[in-house]
Write a structure and sequence with these properties.
It is built from ten helices and 19 strands. By secondary structure, the chain is an alpha/beta fold. The two termini are 30 Å apart. Bound molecules: arginine.
């Protein structure tokens, strides 16, 4: 089918589901530590928090083989669940075990598999946009999606790549983490190294920073890199979509903070978050998920890097305005949604905190029913 996706709730016809193959480690360097900065209270990132790119690809934080295998098992079951729901599933090329690191003029980085598909691409109607990544090891992630995107292009879809950043240390605006670190015990990231390719702050933004509501798109902007990305989106989408900025609703991604379940209904992390939403969204009805419990998550060792907050299971995927895929590890959330009239499709996803993403992050909804960008803000 032709690319057609304007929101996160219309009946789902086609989806891209990430690949977990060969996700064996996290490369600890400046861009990684910056990106996961807000999650460090939950994990045990030891000092020094990062090494500069001059020191190669940084330290690797290995992921236990057992978790990688269990992740793979869960992701393959997600694919089966989509098939049972008659939703076409597209898969990226899996990362080959022999692929080492990539080198650009400005940096070298390890490669991670295309797992959190939500992050580096976004669909606006009949157009797929590859976004400029925030983490160096994800620089070439959309390469694994070439066959899928090329097929949508052949069928008549638009296919756009946003400008790629140089990604030297100086490309990153550190103000968000500098402010967050004030008075805290965390080591501030203060030692960016100069590079001959420095060009000032660059455009870097992830698809997962956007909330798509038909004609209106809300974009989380928490630093100068995001602001440039949002400027680009605004100019590119002008006349087709209305872009609105959310100021620091989260560090970057917002899909474990706020999600739209159908017109007029949001799933929101907490009432505090609700207060920060723009007026137009505050008029919508809201569901607040029950506070996640410790026993919703596996117990990990000190060496296992935890990359998400406890709210990660809010990251559900809507199959239609009344059916939602929910992590089976979160029965409280399932009950809450059922209480509001939703049909819940439980899906097993054990290690979302180790791999930085829930069901929404692992997927990209490329085809949903609906024929154009509708105006939902009058609800
Ligand atoms: N698209 C994504 N990868 N989203 C994941 C966001 C996770 C968020 N930082 C949290 O810890 O709750």
């Amino acid at each position: 089918m032709l690319l057609n996706s304007y929101d996160s709730w219309s009946p789902l016809r086609e989806v891209v589901l990430g690949s977990a193959d060969n996700y064996t480690s996290h490369a600890r360097e400046l861009s990684f530590d910056l990106f996961f900065h807000d999650e460090t209270p939950y994990s045990r990132i030891y000092y020094p928090r990062h090494v500069s790119p001059g020191a190669g690809t940084g330290r690797r934080s290995p992921i236990k083989q057992r978790y990688v295998e269990e992740l793979r098992e869960d992701v393959e079951q997600m694919a089966d669940t989509f098939a049972q729901l008659s939703i076409t599933v597209h898969r990226p090329l899996p990362l080959d075990a022999a692929t080492g690191e990539v080198h650009t003029p400005a940096f070298a980085a390890a490669v991670v598999p295309p797992l959190n598909i939500r992050d580096n691409s976004i669909v606006f109607g009949d157009e797929i946009i590859e976004t400029p990544p925030l983490v160096r090891s994800r620089y070439f992630e959309t390469q694994f999606l070439k066959p899928v995107y090329a097929e949508y292009f052949r069928r008549g879809g638009r296919w756009t790549v946003m400008p790629r950043p140089m990604m030297t240390d100086a490309s990153f605006d550190l103000s968000y983490v500098a402010e967050a670190d004030k008075g805290s015990l965390f080591e501030t990231i203060t030692d960016p190294r100069p590079s001959p390719y420095d060009t000032g702050f660059e455009m870097m933004i992830d698809g997962a920073q956007c909330l798509r509501l038909g004609r209106d798109v809300f974009v989380n902007v928490s630093n100068a890199n995001h602001a440039l990305g949002c400027d680009w989106l605004e100019r590119h989408l002008e006349g087709r979509f209305r872009v609105h900025r959310l100021h620091r609703l989260a560090d970057s991604h917002i899909d474990s903070t706020v999600l739209a379940l159908r017109p007029g209904l949001l799933l929101v992390r907490t009432p505090d978050v609700a207060e920060q939403l723009p007026k137009a969204l505050q008029r919508w009805d809201m569901i607040f998920p029950p506070e996640p419990e410790d026993n919703n998550f596996p117990d990990y060792d000190d060496g296992d890097l935890i990359l998400t907050s406890r709210y990660i299971d809010l990251n559900v995927l809507s199959v239609s305005p009344d059916t939602v895929m929910v992590n089976a590890a979160c029965p409280e959330l399932a009950r809450t949604l059922e209480g509001r009239g939703f049909t819940v499709v439980p899906v097993r996803h054990r290690h979302r905190r180790l791999f930085g993403g829930g069901l929404h992050c692992f997927t990209l909804d490329t085809v949903r029913e609906g024929s154009g960008p509708e105006d939902y803000l009058d609800y």
